[in-house]
Amino acid sequence: MKKLLFLLVLACLNPFCFAQKQPSQTYLLVHGAWHGAWCWNKVVPLLIAQGHKVVAIDLPGHGTDTTPPDDITLDRYVSKVVDVANQGGGKVILVGHSMGGVVIAQAAEQLGLQKVSKLVFLDAFLPKNGDSVSSLAQLIEANLPKDTSRITVGKALIVAPNRKTSTFKPELADILFYHDCTNEDRQFAHQNLSRQSFAPLGTPVRLTDAVYGDLPKYYILCTESKDLDKTLLPTRVKCERVYRLKSSHSPFFSMPFELAALLLQI
Question: Residue 61 — left, alpha, or beta (φ > 0 → left; ψ -120 to 50 → alpha)?
């Protein structure tokens, strides 16, 4: 409780991040692979302090959601986002981190222009029709210099015997996801990282120009990210603007004020 109050006070006092309040909006925050709603814990109170409604969800099988990971599909992820978005009135801003970019893209296609005001991709997989997380990762890898010594996400996985799910090695998560984060944040992440189903990562999205193509899209590129350099992705899909944060793949931990300020600016 003390930490939450501290963040709220800072949010009100920090002129660099929050110079002017804006009309109330609804943000729906969607985490990436192996993560949960817990990764947004520092950002949520900063947005709320500025008068906005914020919902950070656990996708099926993540955080407090008890869906068996072996049974998870992309459709189940998308249904969760759609259901939560439809519970409130008015439009929502969908924010997707990493894998969550593909989830919010497909959810926006289903929710339509009347429900979604804009899409924000936070160092996320930004798809065209027919893309998947796996295909986009392969596309990025194909454009990187060959370096067999580089630590990749694949090297960091402990794959289940049935090959349906994986867990992430904490010591490699620190390198790939959390290199600029505090030890406290790293330990918090270690305690909460969940098993990840492979099925949603390999499933292509079904998107149309009339809906997804017509929604405003914004990209926040984390320039110090060590999992994958996603610079290529916002060049393939029209974005209203690309912002850059000198951050790891986890600015919600390492740069929460700067991240919240960007979300408020978009």
Answer: left
